[in-house]
Write a structure and sequence with these properties.
Length: 436
């Protein structure tokens, strides 16, 4: 790993990663990107419901976004391991900005149609397949390994602050100014995220032994991850959570409108409560530092996602609904923080992008999971389809987390893999430094 400049000021343990200059710029960039993503989720969801007033159409748009993510996510991870991660982040964020700006223009000129949203969702899914693993993998280039868990947690803390402030403010902006102007503001926050990436210096591609094709890199990454039993277990439980538990993040606006009969600001309030729970989780993980029993905390978080989600779905009382959503947000963020951290500790740096891209395939499953939940919800009511999905997620948490050994036995395996990763990295750096 390249050296990074370090602040002379001593920071509290919870903010250790901010000692590194490059990471501070990256963290500032995450403010803009996170606010933009939070605004986009609520605004586009409300736009779909305003145009179609159909849960099925809501699910179809999510499906259009999820399929390209699923197809291209592994290639995005391979690109993150092969090319300049900083340039990939900037390019992919610029592409997202252009698409959101185009949606804004179509909306304010009253030309917007549902097929425009289908097409934009497909392009956004493909772009996100590159941006997400790249943005996550680059953290390992910005901080030393001992600060990695703190850096991941701090990055997610920003995302959750945006989830607290963004949706609630976005709901009021939609009601005050309309959806089109809100999308233009959304574009501005994406631009802010790009500008803060420009001062970052020294992010390099991991040393490679030989030239290979991107397709071969993808195959090698999958083979390596499958051969690493704890890493593969993390990926599989991420798949199940993405398909059955995490779609709640996309479904909240529709649930608020159809089941709870709330306005856009009410839907924003529900998303804000989820963000509060997630923020508390991120700060808690940041404070833990190099916690030894990461595997058991990861397993517990899978249960803390599924059980409150089921209770939220079936208990209609609004105050309890807010409490259960806060628990879902708390469990989800513990799960994401630990999953990302463990994978980067279990695999050598040259495989980090590809291992993380497998993990983020679970993010593509989120959009795919929205489709059956919303389609069944049109027939049975969204409350019951969401509750059934939560129970399936709970089943997989029991099976993959408790009944299958790799996650339970991860601690000794983690120590072995960290040693192997360090040796592999040293070998790669030595090879790269030899004169040609």
């Amino acid at each position: 790993m390249q050296r990074t400049s370090v602040s002379k000021f001593k920071l509290p343990k919870s903010f250790a990663a901010l000692r590194h200059t490059n990471y501070r710029w990256f963290w500032a960039s995450a403010v803009g990107q996170s606010v933009a993503m939070g605004m986009q989720q609520l605004t586009v969801s409300w736009l779909i419901l305003e145009i179609t007033d159909s849960l099925s159409q809501f699910g179809i748009v999510s499906f259009f976004q999820g399929v390209p993510m699923l197809i291209f996510m592994l290639f995005g991870g391979a690109l993150a391991d092969k090319f300049d991660r900083l340039k990939l982040m900037i390019a992919s964020t610029m592409a997202t900005t252009l698409i959101v700006c185009l949606l804004a223009v179509l909306t304010v000129t009253d030309y917007i149609q549902i097929w425009h949203i289908y097409v934009s969702a497909a392009f956004l899914g493909a772009i996100q397949a590159v941006n997400t693993p790249t943005r996550t993998a680059v953290v390992g280039n910005l901080v030393p390994r001992e600060d990695l868990m703190n850096a991941v947690a701090l990055n997610n803390t920003l995302m959750n602050l945006a989830r607290i402030l963004g949706p609630s403010v976005t709901g009021f902006i939609i009601e005050s100014l309309g959806i089109g102007p809100t999308l233009f503001m959304n574009t501005g926050f994406y631009i802010m995220g790009i500008l803060f990436l420009l001062p970052i210096r020294g992010v390099k591609v991991a040393p490679r032994q030989r030239k290979t094709t991107v397709f071969k890199d993808v195959v090698d990454g999958v083979k390596y991850t499958k051969s690493n039993a704890p890493a593969w277990a993390i990926v599989l439980i991420g798949f199940s959570a993405g398909l059955f538990t995490f779609p709640i993040g996309q479904i909240v606006p529709a649930f608020a409108k159809e089941e709870m009969h709330l306005s856009a600001s009410g839907a924003g309030l529900l998303q804000m409560v989820t963000g509060i729970g997630a923020l508390v989780a991120s700060l808690s993980v940041a404070t833990l530092g190099n916690y030894k029993h990461k595997n058991w905390l990861f397993i517990a978080s899978a249960f803390l996602c599924a059980i409150p989600l089921f209770l939220f779905a079936v208990i209609p009382w609004f105050p309890l609904s807010m409490f259960f959503l806060a628990l879902v947000g708390f469990g989800t963020m513990i799960f994401l923080n630990l999953g990302i951290t463990l994978l980067q500790l279990l695999v050598p740096p040259e495989y980090a992008g590809r291992a993380l891209s497998l993990w983020f395939v679970g993010a593509a499953f989120i959009f795919l999971g929205v489709f059956p939940i919303s389609a069944i919800g049109d027939i049975t009511g969204l409350r019951w389809s969401l509750g059934g999905s939560a129970l399936i997620g709970l089943f997989f948490a029991i099976w993959l987390g408790l009944l299958w050994p790799p996650l339970r036995n991860m601690r000794s395996g983690l120590e072995v893999q960290q040693k192997a990763s360090a040796e592999t990295s040293q070998s790669s750096e030595a090879s790269a430094s030899k004169p040609k």
